[in-house]
Write a structure and sequence with these properties.
Blueprint lengths: L1 E6 L4 H13 L4 E6 L2 H8 L5 E4 L1 H10 L2 E5 L7 H4 L3 H9 L3 E5 L16 H16 L5
Parallel strand pairs: 1-2, 1-4, 2-3, 4-5
Helix pairs in contact: 1-2, 1-6, 3-5
Length: about 140
């Protein structure tokens, strides 16, 4: 299984998601794709199998992914304070991969039906869903 984790800005959420993916899916190949070099460097601390940065790298990683994991903003052009380009959002949205998105109510993107939940709970739920996908279940 090829898991691609996409994050931008400071990369903190991506680092946490990479650590969760490593723990919950030990046989998976994990690629951390930062929208910028800072995010990539922070995600690298979670020891993914590969780490890359920039628009072209994010787009390429999406082509190879079985699962794309990241905050909701990765499918919204202009999200993350403008770091998500239209090409990145299109690559994520049109990928054949399963998209496992963490619903962040930030940066003028509000998700109806999603209450304010601590980030730790959102990440734990993402880990549960990722483990189910790796086990062949659909949730």
């Amino acid at each position: 299984m090829e898991i691609v984790i996409i994050d931008g800005q400071g990369g903190r959420i991506g680092r946490e998601l990479a650590a969760i993916a490593r723990a919950r899916c030990p046989g998976a190949h994990i690629t951390a794709a930062g929208t910028n070099s800072t995010a990539a460097a922070v995600m690298l601390k979670a020891a993914p199998d590969a780490c890359t940065a920039g628009e072209a790298a994010v787009i390429d990683a999406c082509r190879k992914a079985d699962v794309i994991l990241g905050p909701l903003g990765i499918v919204i052009a202009g999200a993350m304070l403008g770091e998500i380009s239209p090409a990145m959002a299109t690559a994520v949205g049109s990928a054949k991969a399963v998209r496992l998105l963490v619903p962040m109510n930030r940066c003028a993107n509000l998700v109806a039906g999603v209450p304010d939940v601590p980030l730790s709970r959102l990440l734990a739920d993402a880990g549960d869903k990722l483990a189910a996908l790796a086990a062949g279940e659909k949730k």
